Amino acid sequence: MTRPAPEAATHATNHAANQVDAALITRRSIRAFLPTPVPRADIEAILEVAIRAPSGTNTQPWKVYVVTGDSLARLSQALLAAYDDPERDTLYREEYPYYPREWVSPYIDRRRKIGWDLYGLLGIGKGDKARMHEQHAQNYRFFGAPVGLFFTIDRVMERGSWLDYGMFLQAIMTAARGRGLDTCPQAAFTRFIK
Ligand SMILES: Cc1cc2nc3c(=O)[nH]c(=O)nc-3n(C[C@H](O)[C@H](O)[C@H](O)COP(=O)(O)O)c2cc1C
After folding, report:
1. 3-state class of 80 per DSSP?
2. Closest Cα to atom 6, ligand 1: which residue?
């Protein structure tokens, strides 16, 4: 084998960079999916690629559950029932706080902006609690997506492993984009620990 001419190597490198950049740049959180099933082989290929993500001392702290079809529909119904339960905040809890207990600027401002941008786009007025509730419930319908991936971590693992997990999640979302698929990361599920 010989090395490609330098200009050919540069071209190939640029092409790969463009593809990686495109996957990163075109990833966005989608909140209205087509129901088109995703072949199992594609899901497996995405996970095979993503498990190449780095982790401290190669601990690979991730565990993934893939949910589709009837199982996804039943899970969605159970989540919606829990979400609509007036007692939900005494019945369920969040094991680890994802967001700060006390919000400060600039994060609170960004948080408010993303919320009002979304509600504005959907024509949901300030104070329209019923429609806000209904919009949030779309989380528990998986925004219509045909596949749900649930991620867990062993309780003995520490915050370093959560960093590893973030890299793994980003790798999944990027690998999905590379195959023309979209995603939405969702913390909305974490509040339903019994
Ligand atoms: C860990 C994590 C949890 C998130 N949880 C939710 C969620 O529960 N529901 C939702 O609609 N979006 C959720 N998002 C999406 C963010 O709102 C979104 O990433 C952010 O507004 C930036 O927009 P973009 O992803 O389109 O670039 C989450 C994102 C991350 C990284």
Report:
1. helix
2. 186
